[in-house]
Hints:
Its cofactor is Zn(2+); Fe cation. It comes from Cinchona calisaya. The N and C termini lie far apart (68 Å). Strand 14 and strand 15 form a beta hairpin. The chain is α+β, with helices and mostly antiparallel strands.
Amino acid sequence: MAAIKGLFMLLILALAFAGASHLQLALAYDRPPPRKSLFVAPSKDLDSTSPQQVHTSLVGQDKIRISWITDDSSPSTVEYGTSSGAYGFSANGNTTSYSYVTYDSGEIHNVVIGLLKPNTQYFYRCGSDSSPEFSLKTPPAQFPIKFAVAGDLGQTDWTSSTLEHIEKSSYDMLLLPGDLSYADTDQPSWDSFGRLVEPLASKRPWMVTQGNHEIEKIPVLHSQPFTAYNARWYMPYEQSGSDSNLYYSFEVAGVHVIMLGSYTDFDSSSVQYNWLQTDLKKVDRSRTPWLVVLVHAPWYNSNEAHQGEAESVDMKAAMEELLYQARVDVVFAGHVHAYERFTRVYNEEANNCGPVYITIGDGGNREGLATKYIDPQPKISAFREASFGHGEFEVMNATHARWTWHRNDDDEAVITDSIWLVSLASDPTCKV
């Protein structure tokens, strides 16, 4: 008995010397198992001209695009106002559709409303007078502003949990670095995804870029990539001088956001590269002191998943210098189904004037978590964990912002990682 007690005490001492923080993490958290995939069917209360899959996106400083789908033809009109049931303004838009092998989409409506007041609640209805009322809040025109960030959402019970946590976060805008629906050529799954996210995306602007699951090319049968993505998620690329919905930029409340395309040409002779050069030269850090970039395939990654891919390695080789010289503050990526935050980095080394790279591909996809990391952990990797969750980037003022990562622990959002950031535009040692 004495020997057993002695061994027990040695075990306790060994655990104590291993570090209290590691012990707390091991005892406090059991990684969640996968959850079933979802398919959200249309409501039985809707008719063929009822708006479905309503989502909103920012267009310039004071305009919002309202997008929705109807089964049959319906007016591309939005009536809106600042009081429920009182619509003093209206705007008209256009309608498109697309075909994919044997699938024909519904009528896809896009209407831009505005000029709108910042940080204001608007009520609106789409199409006919009998359509239901929706509401949205416009982003603020100045600090503070809170971004929710979630990648690789998909459609599972974990996705639902992530969306529930985001909805409770009082965010102003959602940023999504690719892999939205995981339809993977099954076009009705795009419709399901639109219905799944409508409760959130109809209330706040959702700004997205594409991932590999949006390509959806089929040899011989369908050779055009990004057909569904481009038709359904129309982003404001023209306003930033881009010629493609796959990469664009926008400004909101003192933040310049650049959305890059991992799965279109990005080498130094490409249109996207030249556009990025031009866009970065236009950035005025006195007006937008924060500079944020989103890309799907991460340029920095210590997870065993997705190592050595051209979309990561070659794009980093082509564009990292541009982002470093422009003093980009943060780069968000998806693709790897886990969370990881790096310190400020440039050319594989810690650099106080480089971006903070964050992988946030843990929204809830059906493929599960990427649980294996490279050992030992690189010095430039500050925090990593394979769990589902989302992030919040709250920009307080021109100099300070707080990043928090919230994992979906037992269906409750838990802040597991947080850091305060100082904008590089305000750092005298990092002249912009």
